Structure formats: structure tokens, C-alpha cells
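Q: C-alpha cells for this one, please.
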Amino acid sequence: MIWYGLLVAAVAAERVAELVVARRNERWSTARGAIVTGQGHYPAMVALHTGLLVGCLAEVWLADRPFVPVLAWPLLAVLAGAQALRWWCIGTLGPRWNTRVIVVPALPLVTSGPYRLLRHPNYLAVVAEGVALPLVHTAWVTAAVFTVLNAALLTVRIRCENRALAAATAPTTPAPA
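A: Here is the predicted structure, written as C-alpha cells:
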């Protein structure tokens, strides 16, 4: 259980690193006239992701979930892949990446890196992590609850992002003379 606690702590540290990057990127975007949308769902997203980390540890400890190597090792590989995909997304978007929906008007959509394959590849990483992290130590209730709640949240989040990106990248029509 100690090693699993360290794994969850490492994922939590990664989240803190993301927040540091996001704050820096928010300053960059704001300096360029960024538009921030979707503030209503952001607290739910923070709570859900915090709940994932707490749920993983609590379920393993309180329900005495076993470590099953045949399940754990492949899921550790999925978890590592999810982290790699997340940081590939962050690196590809550069200062435009954020945990919030922040769009700088008139910048073209990014279509390189993982964005040439998927419109929202970071959310694939989130889904994979939400399944893999709890199941590494058979915390199946946490995996199931997170997956259901995350699906509902991503429905809202992706709609919000798509609207913001469409509005920010829409061509502007000059006013009649």
C-alpha cells in the first residue's frame, strides 16, 4: 500500500505542476486579450479530480483492496501513457494550454502533435488516467464513480471549449463603410 500511496502522491504532484504551468499560461493569454469562459464547471472539475486521488487511497485502505499484478502492471503502463499524452498536449499547445477554458482571439487552432489525430486528446489522457490509477490497486468503485461523473463533466467541458474555440477563431467581418 505504501508504494501505491507514493504513486498517487506522484500523480498529485503532477497536478500541482500542471497548475503552475496553467497559471503562467493564463498570464501569457491575458496579456494577449484572452477570453475566459466556462467558470461555472471549473470548481466541479477540481473537486472531481481531487476526489479521484482521495478515492483511490481511501478505497484501497478502507476496503482493503488487493494488489493484483496481472491487472496492475498493464494499468501502470496505461497510466504512464496517459501522462505522456497529457504532457505531449501541454508541449504542443505551449502557452495556450490551460486547465481553464481560456482562448486568445484570432489565433488559429492547433493542428499539430496529438491535435492532428484528435480534437481533444488531453481528455483521452484524463479518461485513461481515471480508469487506470484506481484499478492499479483494484479500487474499482473509485474508477466507476469517477468515470461516470467525468463523462458528465466532459460533456459540458467539451461543448464549452468547442464554443469558445469557434468564437475565437471565427473570421471577423469588417463593418460596412
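A few notes: The mean pLDDT is 95. The first helix runs from residue 2 to 30.
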